[in-house]
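job 3f2a | input accepted
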Amino acid sequence: LLSGVLDFALNFPPGLITGLLLRWRPLPSVLLGGVTYISSSGIVAKVLAELKRMNNPETPSVISVLVLEDLAMAVYLPLIAALLVGGGPLRTILSVFIALATVGIILLVALRYGRQVSKLFLHESDEILLLTTFGVVLLVGGLAHRLQVSAAIGAFLVGIALSGPMAEKSRRLVGPLRDLFAATFFFFFGLQIDPRTLPSVMILAVGLGIVSSVTKVLTGYWAAGREGVDRRGRIRAGMVLVARGEFSIIIAGLGTSIEPHLGPLAAAYVLFLAILGPALARFVK
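job 3f2a | predicted structure (285 res):
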């Protein structure tokens, strides 16, 4: 939890301050803070798997930071959505309360009854297991969306709830689809960006990327250090957290209607760090 607090304190301000310096309104500046705050769980998980670092001593610290970031989105996204539609204080508080209650209930079920839920859905047939997994993800994601929580957060919480053989088989079956859907997601985002708008924001995006890369490295270094990991492992933890991706894109997409420069800046920023992050992770062995 302390690592998560430090993560927010180091990585949210670069985007927020940049937005304010650009003389944006407070809300798009807060959105840019969210873009710089959250690492890409998908890219980080892929890099850890490809580099065979899942059993490294620093990896639990990295995963803890990523989980806390994703849970923070369960509060951040409903709050931003309420502010974007112009809701009053009561509506905003209600949205955040519903989000917190939804996440709390799902987490309670995951922690106390995760094994029972996993045994209930486990089946020898890969087809039945795959369809069951997708059915649960769609159901929980849909309910979360109806309750003003991101559907992605709902799906994430389902992943937390599954454990044991059910989780192992689901990873094997869904892995190729994960890569396909991730590529489709980034492709669709690319369709919304005019390449002619990127050169004008690229220098700012690279500068912001360098600053927020340093703050992410400091986050990972400190988080792994608290677990007694050696210096090289701390550096690996920091480097692998640099990449930004899916949630940064989602956040930027929310604010394009109120700040037209947010989309191109976020696109250039994510593009830069999605390339730089894995490269840095491979550089430190």
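job 3f2a | The two ends are 27 Å apart (CA to CA).
job 3f2a | closed
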